[in-house]
Amino acid sequence: MVHGLCLLRIFLIYMVVKPGIPWYFQPMKTAFGLFMPTYVSSGSAFELRRLTGGIRYDFEVAEAFRSRGFITNTLDLETLPAHVRSLRFPATAHLWKASQDKPFHTLVTDLGTSPLTLGLQERAGRAGILTVLICHHFRGHLEKPLLKRLLHRYCEKRIVAGADILVANSSHTRSVLVGMGRAPHDIILAPPGLNVPLASGPRRSENPATILAVGNIEERKGVIDAVRALGHAGLPSATLVLAGSDELEPSYAREVRALTERSGLSGRVRITGRLTDDELKGFFRSADVFMLLSRWEGYGMAIAEAMASGLPVLSTTAGAIPGIVANGVSGLLVEPGDWKAAGDYLRLLFTDAPLRRRLAEEALKSAAGFPTWKDTTDRIVQEVLSRLQSPSRK
């Protein structure tokens, strides 16, 4: 039944957005404006303080355009009809209608929402609207069911090929985009800014006790690997704090809790749920070691923030992580899924104080060169303005 629905999605997507289907509409002719369908809702200031990962990135980009005088309209994709969100069917007509609330010349979409926004770029492009695609990571290889992988790969290939400007959050992501056939001059390298202040010095814990992992409780973050690593490390006084939401993948969160109980670690593993910025900063300040055993990262914002907090880092070689953590210098890296090696390294970090301090010092030095959100968003806004003001577009 599930495979049949996925196959139906792929067929319907092809029929709706295949090349050559005409769309009838008039291009906008007004001052610079921006439309951005995303998962950002501006309805609650409290909620905005809880944004993380790619959603936080999208929020910062939208705010940067707004602060520079763009007429900015963001649409929370959670407000789409339930059947559209569940089927992951392109909502082109709905999104285009919603975009008409404010005039715009720039469309910004996120690669992670490609099944919903597929076709919107083409429609905007035909209206002479500049299209920008923010690329955090690619879901095509993350999905386990074959038909879901095919669905995401199809959408990603189409939407990457159609954007005027691509924003890559890491050198690794940029290399993937080039491998997909995009010219380097169409790609802006704009790593995320830091959400935490740079620490005044590295963490110097003489009796480490707390391991911090920041990320939603989902398979991609390797949370089960982290729990197994804790059990394998043989550190009876160590506590693992999992700072993130357990609502995104409920079945996986149940697996995490079941493993914790079976392993006798119930009193030593804590899931915090979603946190505000201030709450998260508090956990960074109180932790002794940071561990995130991700199976894939397009950048690794939480890892960068741990380094900026002066923490020794234990992570994996997945995706873009080696681009921010130098193995053996500013952190320790293992292959994705190798929780035994992670447990051995964890024990080493807890028992070797000089190593722990050296890694923390080098991590903080590296983090001093990480961009701010202003650095990041300035690159994007300036490129968009340059394209909009180009004589070829007038």
Number of beta strands: 12
Structural class: alpha/beta
- The CATH class designation of the largest domain is Alpha Beta
Mean pLDDT: 88
Set down the secondary structure blueprint.
Blueprint: H1 2-17, E1 33-38, H2 45-48, H3 53-67, E2 71-76, H4 82-87, H5 92-99, E3 106-110, H6 114-117, H7 120-126, E4 130-135, H8 146-162, E5 165-168, H9 171-179, E6 187-189, E7 210-214, H10 223-233, E8 239-243, H11 250-262, E9 269-271, H12 277-286, E10 289-291, H13 301-308, E11 313-316, E12 332-334, H14 339-351, H15 353-367, H16 373-388
Parallel strand pairs: 1-2, 1-3, 3-4, 4-5, 5-6, 7-8, 7-10, 8-9, 10-11, 11-12
Describe this entry's structure for a reader.
With 394 residues, the protein is α/β, with parallel strands linked by helices. It folds into two domains: 197 residues, Glycogen Phosphorylase B (Rossmann fold, 3-Layer(aba) Sandwich); 158 residues, Rossmann fold (3-Layer(aba) Sandwich). 44% of the residues lie in helices and 13% in strands. The strands form two sheets. Strands 2-1-3-4-5-6 form a six-stranded parallel beta sheet, with helices on both faces. It has a six-stranded parallel beta sheet with strand order 9-8-7-10-11-12, sandwiched between helices. Helix 3 packs across helix 16 and helix 10 packs across helix 14.
In short:
The protein is an alpha/beta fold. The protein has helices at 2-17, 45-48, 53-67, 82-87, 92-99, 114-117, 120-126, 146-162, 171-179, 223-233, 250-262, 277-286, 301-308, 339-351, 353-367, 373-388, and strands at 33-38, 71-76, 106-110, 130-135, 165-168, 187-189, 210-214, 239-243, 269-271, 289-291, 313-316, 332-334. The termini are far apart.
